Structure formats: structure tokens, C-alpha cells
Amino acid sequence: MDLISDLNQLKAADLYIAAISDDAIADLSQKLPKDICLVHTSGTVGMDVLSRQSKRGVFYPLQSFSKNHDVRFDQIPICLESNDTETMTLLEQVAHKLSKKVVHIDSPQRLELHFGAVLVNNFTNHLYALSQNHLKNKGINFDLLHPLIEETTRKALTIGADSAQTGPAKRGDFKTIQRHVNLITDQQLKEIYNLLSDSIRNHSKSK
Amino acid sequence: MDLISDLNQLKAADLYIAAISDDAIADLSQKLPKDICLVHTSGTVGMDVLSRQSKRGVFYPLQSFSKNHDVRFDQIPICLESNDTETMTLLEQVAHKLSKKVVHIDSPQRLELHFGAVLVNNFTNHLYALSQNHLKNKGINFDLLHPLIEETTRKALTIGADSAQTGPAKRGDFKTIQRHVNLITDQQLKEIYNLLSDSIRNHSKSK
Prior knowledge:
2 copies of one chain form a homodimer. By secondary structure, the first copy, chain A, is of the alpha/beta class. The first copy, chain A, has helices at 25-31, 85-98, 107-137, 146-158, 161-164, 168-171, 174-183, 187-205, and strands at residues 16-18, 37-40, 55-61, 78-82, 102-104. The first copy, chain A, folds into 2 domains: 9-105, Rossmann fold (3-Layer(aba) Sandwich); 111-205, Orthogonal Bundle (N-(1-d-carboxylethyl)-l-norvaline Dehydrogenase, domain 2). Chain A is built from 8 helices and 5 strands. Chain A has a 5-stranded mixed sheet with strand order 1-2-3-4-5, with helices on both faces.
């Protein structure tokens, strides 16, 4: 792959994929020729931000990437959008080479999907971190929870999260909830505990 | 296995395991003979609730159980506690027949562990349910998030949740956070979104 640092040196290509930060996409679009086919990879930015290019689209791999951790790319859903049939055909060809799961999702739906992804990825991961942090402070090995974490995920994906819900909040076991709250010294963690317990209760009541 | 419904018909045994609801344990202990060896299976109730029995203990399998879903029992950590060496030896023998992971955990530590388990199990599962519910209302297939959920778990267990944290809150990307908040019509979900986003930010600042 040739690296360039000057957009004027950009070589001719059938497709340009702007895999850059959300806020930089509009600016890049303005600096590039009108007649290229340009797509971005953002989950939250609409396709219209590329309005300078008549052939535009979105190529959004629905996964969270971290340095030093490889992912199985063929399992990642790739969400495509374009204003142009020819561009869409091109995007589909590229997407199918990378993944077995290729879907068409428009900009408003992609934003909803990204929101859903934040709940199941960023927020659950943060709960893992909060739990690990709490247990570390108490001298308890977090590894003891690894089988539970694996099982929770497996169960939610097989029987569904609604059926898989267990625990003191679901049961309305206020004694245990109070015992837990008494353990928490961090005010924000206490708020999280109470709010999520409330939400679990409301969610099961509305079934 | 013989079933009885009258405690007077209880047969002689080396070990009695009370796998019953937390609130019923103390009462059962009072109704059983003093000279038996009795343990309970609760994560949150102290061993002392069995004070009538001189040989007492706890046999706590650290897993969440659901009807219609089998678990691999040999992977479940079994946390043991006893006031009596002989009873502990017996508990270890039974535990090692069921699982490869047997640990000694006292009552206060077991309660901490149970709290940590609620964060990584009940709360993450509830976030899956909230996400699924939101996307269902928008006509989006939740299955698209399955690979992300699997990857989030795998990554947290390999590189650790702190290193695995990504997303708008971690990046301080307020535009995306605002776009998400604008999607949320449920007031409690909005509170959860804001509180967990704040907590992620505070957590990364304190590193």
C-alpha cells in the first residue's frame, strides 16, 4: 500500500473509503474531487455529509476494534448504504470479500444500530471494568467471574436476554439489594446499581 | 432420589445441602437437628445463619441458572466455607467431583463476589434486553449485534475490560453522545445512558 500525505497525490481508484474520525469526514469530502466514488465507515454520521460527491455511500463494519486484538472479520456484519446503484454494487462486491454478513441499512437506522451497539458493547464492558475494579480493591480474583461472563453472553444469545434475566432485582429481593448497596463506597457506582436495579424491576413488571 | 415433604422423614446422611431461597435458610436450620452437617448454597447469606448446627458451611456454585438452559458444571467455580475441618474436607470431596475450580471464600468475601457477579451478569444481561427492545421498536434485527456481543466478551476476558473500552464516552465524543440521547424516548433509559457515559468518562480520567 502506498502512503501519501498530500491529497493532490491521490491515485485514481474505483472506490475511496474514508476510515477517519467522524468529525473529519465532511472536511475531507470538501477537499476531494466531485467525480470520485467516496464512502465513509462511521456508524453515526449520515451519508449526506459526503454531499459534494455525487457517488457516495457508507461502508460500516459493525464491530469494536482495539489495538493488539484481532477480530474474525468474516463474522462482522457490514452495513452498506449508497445513493447510487453502481456504487452499491461495488460496495457489495468489496463487502462480500470481507464478510459473510452484508446488509443494507440507511443512515437513520444505522444511528439506531450504533446506539444499540453502545449499550451491548461500551456499557457492558464498563460494567466488567467496574466489577473488576471493585473486587480488586477487596482482594478478590476477578477471574472467578470469567465462567459467569461467558455463560451470560452465551445464554442471552441462545434463549434471549429477557428469558435469561435473573438476580435480586428481577426477583424483587430487597434484602440482597440492600446488602449490596451497603458494600458500595463509590457514589456513582451506587447510583448505577440503584438505577439498573430499578430498570430491571420496571422491565419485568411491564411483561 | 427420594422426595419427602416432612422434615421428620429426613434420612441419615453425612451432608445436608440446603439449596433453598435465602430467606428460608435460617428457619430450616432451626427445624433441623443440631448434630447434622448442614450447608447452604447462597451467595449473599452468611454462614452464621446456620448457627444451630455445630457443623455448618457454604457450598456456593458461582453461576446463574435458568430453566431450559444447561450449563457446563465442571467450569463453574464452587466457593466453599466451613467452621469445621472435617466438614470442609467433605465439601471439597463433593465439589471436586462436580467442578475443576474449587476455592475457599469466607462470608464477607462471598457477598462481595456476589455483588461483582450481579454487575457482570444481571446488569449486562439487562443492557442486552434494553438494546434488543429499543432496536425491535425501530424494526431493526438485534441479531446484527450478536457478533459484537461475542467479541466484547472475548476481548474483556483476554485483554481486560480496561484496555477493551471503546466508544463515544471513552473518546469524549459529545456530538455522538448527543445524537444517541436524541434517539431515546424512555426517560429511565436516558438516565442510564447519561449515567454510564459519565462513569466511563470518570473511569478513564482517573487512569
